[in-house]
Design brief:
This protein is mostly beta strands.
């Protein structure tokens, strides 16, 4: 049964770093990270296709600070976050599609979701 299980996250001071992981059971092509802060809409953060030439896409707000990667041998997705800002505080979710979504940040493209993990960045 296809499943996504997240780990990592927690609290960090502004300027610090955190890493999120998402262990997948089953085959997935495009995988992505989304986040949702209280009172705000869910936002696509980064996405990556399975293929070796797969593209990656980042939200403008995280470009140059966050890196999405995946290890297909471990069936795991990662989000390395550097230079964290208080505005990065949110619940983070991994998402996946069994089909190639060309690293889309549209949440409607994904039908499998992780349980969510809180990231809190303090000044």
């Amino acid at each position: 049964q296809e499943q996504l299980v997240q780990s990592g996250g927690g609290s960090a001071q502004a300027g610090g770093s955190l890493r999120l992981s998402c262990a997948a059971s089953g085959y997935f092509n495009t995988m992505a990270w989304f986040r949702q802060a209280p009172g705000k809409e869910r936002e696509g953060v980064a996405a990556i296709d399975r293929e070796r030439d797969g593209t990656t896409t980042y939200a403008d707000s995280v470009k140059g600070r966050f890196t999405i990667s995946r290890d297909n041998t471990k069936n795991t997705l990662y989000l390395q976050m550097h230079t964290l800002k208080p505005d990065d505080t949110a619940m983070y979710y991994c998402a996946a599609s069994q089909f190639r979504q060309w690293s889309s940040l549209r949440d409607t493209r994904y039908n499998y979701w992780g349980q969510g993990t809180q990231v809190t960045v303090t000044v």
